Amino acid sequence: MQPPAGSQVSRVPAQRTPSEQLPPASATPAPQPPRRRVRTVLTVVAGVLALLVVSGIIAGVVLYNRAAAPDRSAPDVVVDNYLRALLVDRNDTRVDLFTCKSGAELEALRSLRTDLVAREQELGVTILVSWGSLDVSRKGNTASVVTGIRRSATVDGVQQSVTDKWQFDVERQEGWRVCGGAKIG
Fold this sequence. Notes:
5 strands, alpha+beta, elongated
């Protein structure tokens, strides 16, 4: 087809490479389209990110469970945790984590806490509770732990304190647990 008269289109015929000069079709692999490469890279990156997220969640659950689990690894440790929950934090839910499942004789300790709360209200002070070293005598799956429990407060500007010696009976039941406690001596 001829271009219209007066047009400035070149009248040189299009030049094509003769077919014998083209490389054979099977000798040169066709380059992968860029879209396919991008999809592959994005798929790999998404897979790695998903793996990292799942690993992070699993690690978080394991660490949380370790941190939240009560430490009942030894007789002295369980008595220390029990006293902290009972007399310092005054958290009955936490106390139950450290006591025997049945047959616990801990009335004397509950009475001690009830007396502490009553005296705080009566005197209008906060009574601080602490204990000394925990001496353990162990016999198989039972143990006896002895310590001094100290109660101190400042009443009318005067520092006062009382220390009593207590003995705790501890048994191994899914870890160590406090099964009894009484004031001695």
